[in-house]
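Appendix B.2, paired examples.
Example (i):
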Amino acid sequence: MLSQEAIEEIHHIAAEYPEPRSALIPALFIAQRENNGYCSPEVMAEVAQVLRLTPAYVRSVASFYTMIYKEPVGKTIVDVCTNLACMLRGAEENIHYISGRLKCPIEGNSEDGQCTLHAVECLGYCDIAPMMQIGGETYGHLTRESIDQILGEHTSNA
């Protein structure tokens, strides 16, 4: 559930917009930060109440965005771009390699709950394809060697 500080932060952000619903995405990120990295239906209902929106509206917006997590996620989230430029340069092989290294299914969590692996649509870095993001950090021109190094810096699973 949301802390009083989170509720105040959401109100502060909402005050910057002409319509409170315009603050929904930042509010969901605040809620996600507060609740172990994801937005449960109960948390989304609470966000709806704070912004005076319907829970159905909040769920519909949250369901559109892949970076609003609706299920529990690991401490380390690995997003691998699978759009055209990355696919042409080996994204499919990379994501399967990463899945094996992390012992983590694609679109799932590792057994120890430490890692989450997502195949995502374009992240906007076609010039460095194939690429991935970990915790918001972008890594491109991926090879098995660079993947091993990057995963080693971010996880204990690799």
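Example (ii):
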Amino acid sequence: MRDAAEYLTHVHALIIANAGIVHWSVVREDGQGTLGMLRYRLTLRDGGLVEAFELFEVVAGRLNVKTYSFHWQDAAGRLQRRWDNAAHRPEVPTHPYHVHEGEEMTVREHGPVSLEEILASVTAEASHPNDAP
């Protein structure tokens, strides 16, 4: 990967190719040289919503995501999960990486995740909610 614009193009292609996403909009996006950010709103086939945010840099051809938040809610607006690396949960062993599950205050340890992983996981689980762990 050469720069931020190339990564943003890659993300667009992932979204477009994902059959579980029926609509998406760019809330904000910027790619200047090696630095970039994205904020997208994705509507899922089941009516759920994913809000994706990344602040990133491309260094020596590799993506380095500095800050992220991936918020997933169901069609009724209930939080399913939100993965982020905000430093507000120092008690979590994987600090700053963690996931909020079901309720804002239910926080569990979780390693770093990519937007690509979240899109695959969320759209698969939203398509087959009874198969979820």
